[in-house]
Amino acid sequence: SEDLPERVLLKELSGIKVMLKRYLAYIVRSVTCRSITAAVIAALSLFFIPETAAQDIFTDDTINISAVTVTAPSSARNTPFSISQIDSAALARYVGDDLATVLQKSSLLSVKRYGTTGLASVSVRGLSGSHTMVTWNGINVTGPGTGMSDFSIIPMTAASSVVITPGGSDLRDISGSIGGRIELVSDPVFREGTTATLNLGAGSFDSYNSSLIIQTGGGNVSAKVSLWGDKAENNFIFTNNDAPTSPSEERRTNSASASAGIVSDLSLKIRKSTLSAHLWLSDAERELPGPVTTVQQDFGEKQHDGVIRSVVKYSLAPGRFTADIVAGESYETNSYTNESAGINGDNSSVTYTMKGAFGFRVNDKLELTFNAGNEYQRAQSLGYAETVKRNLFTSSLGARYTPVTRLRLVIQARQMVASGTATDPELTAGGTFLLSGDGKNIVRAVISRNSRIPSLNDLFWMPGGNSDLIPETSTGGEAAYSFSGTSPSGRHSTIDITFHSSAVSNLIQWVPGESGIWSAENVRSVRVTGMEGKAGTTLPLESGSIRTSLNYSFTRSVIQSSDIQNDKSIGKQLIYTPLHHLNGCAGITWRFISIGAAVVYESKRYTTSDNSEWLPQSFQADASLGTHFSAGRSKIEVDFRANNIFNTPYESVQNYPMPLRNYSINIKMTLGNTEKNRNK
């Protein structure tokens, strides 16, 4: 029953015609109908490219590893709830992959994907993908219809860093998420000079990718334009263990994909304020391979996804007072074709956002914050009787108090009104305490009560939508220990251990009714408990460094009660939620050579709610070999990767196999004319 919303999503998605024609139509529509802001942002960004040439006792916490760089800055370590960050260096390593791949290999999150090109959702702390919120430069880009994001079509160039906040303790957003939040952030670089970076990649199964990033700026200006494109046949080899005669190796069919897009970022410093504008245009065309049972199914499914997003942000910090104002729009089109069933779905949604965050530092010990925002959603679908609309208004209050030097207390309260109906108030309270005065050892704890409102599909899909649904609620907390320190030899080490627990009630599930029609209902309660551990070390060498990182999570996500008669899932683990998830990386860089390895392990994942069927445990290992050299102001990097080096058969979703051993090579060329280079 928990897979139904994703099948509903596939019904909404699309077959493409001509990508360039779609782009032209989007731009014309944005200028003539509603998104003049997007066109202005693009023009400003392109115009500037040729023309522009308080103390905290917590220290920065950076772990450099061969595949990724995970950063937890001082402000993140000083919050009562967990925050981790994947920065631009890590995203650059995976420039030819999607965000789902990065999160699977470098974070504590679990990824569920229908093959290499199908829907990819991310699970945070044992809850489904519909409980994970995604934001981009301050606006919510989670699809209002499905309540989910497809991470397989989020490019690496969409942001310069990715911030992960597990759980729902942070109440700054307009709407809540009880699983967690993933923030895509475009950080400006106010640096004199211009750089251009070209990435060219190729891999097994006729896969090719490319991107061009041009960044320029000065002391008060930062401008960046990123273009990307990729295509792949994805006719990879897999093992069919259920073949009619005996297990056999076959090639995947109807699995080709292609995508392209542009992201533009412009930031201006005006005295003590910053004005920034961001634009995201992308288009993806995919064939959707069918399930593999005894034979490989091919229903002729195709999907098209188009996106226009634009954001304008203004930040002011004249002294004790701070203000951040965000206005943005996210417009998406999804169309889906199933040739065998004769199904064609054409859908679209738009979300308008306006919000502000205001802070006032009363004195050195007390800081107050007030957030208010409005989000207007509108969606059209063949599954709706008419165009559906919803308005969300939220206001929240917060306070940060430091009674003594080593202790910081935080409290937040939020009230949300959805289309005139107020939800139950939400609350977060917690604190951090320094065990040592140098900030190396920290303990923190938080308790919270937060909620998630139903998606538009849950409310209005025909048949089965239920307008009487109430928000899902989560009550729980976490406690953690964090260490970050550097030895006299220069070795930097970090350790983070977190214990978390939450009780989720009024869980929305699609269940069959007496007439056989599935409908959305608040029918279950879930108990989630777990432990998360992260450790990393960077050891500098005379001409390089050694880096290691290890992430492990233990997650029990068990159904506690149910309103479904004779429900056999009570006391069972939620489907596709592994009890154990582990990934690790190790790498060495010496002079112009780099060598790295990465592993991902997941315990068995149940595919039925009564836990009678499951996917076996999986272990994937990758290896990389790279080199780099410089010539004047130019730098060239070459990276060769072997994925799934042990040739292990693997399914992320039952009957949707993933590739066996495969290879890729990436060439990165950077031409820089920065202030640093000119001073050499």
Topology, please?
Blueprint: H1 4-12, H2 19-34, H3 36-51, E1 61-64, E2 69-72, H4 74-77, E3 84-86, H5 88-93, H6 99-106, E4 110-113, E5 120-123, E6 132-136, E7 139-140, E8 161-166, E9 180-185, E10 193-203, E11 207-217, E12 221-232, E13 237-240, E14 248-251, E15 257-270, E16 273-288, E17 301-316, E18 321-338, E19 343-361, E20 366-380, E21 388-404, E22 407-418, E23 421-422, E24 426-434, E25 441-452, H7 456-460, E26 472-486, E27 492-512, E28 518-541, E29 544-562, E30 580-590, E31 593-602, E32 605-606, E33 614-615, E34 618-631, E35 634-643, E36 651-653, E37 656-657, E38 662-674, H8 675-678
Parallel strand pairs: 6-9
Antiparallel strand pairs: 1-2, 2-3, 3-8, 4-5, 6-7, 8-9, 10-11, 10-38, 11-12, 12-15, 13-14, 15-16, 16-17, 17-18, 18-19, 19-20, 20-21, 21-22, 22-23, 22-24, 24-25, 25-26, 26-27, 27-28, 28-29, 29-30, 30-31, 31-34, 32-33, 34-35, 35-38, 36-37
Helix pairs in contact: 2-3
- Which residues sit in consecutive blocks of at least 5 with pLDDT less than 50? 1-73, 676-680
The radius of gyration is 24 Å
Number of strands: 38
* Biggest beta sheet attributes: 22 strands, antiparallel, barrel
**What gap, in angstroms, lies between the N and C termini?**
63 Å
Helix count? 8
User: What proportion of the residues form beta strands (DSSP E)?
Assistant: over 45%
Shape: globular
Q: How would you classify the helix and strand content by structural class?
A: mainly beta
Q: Helical percent range?
A: 10-25%
Mean pLDDT: 86
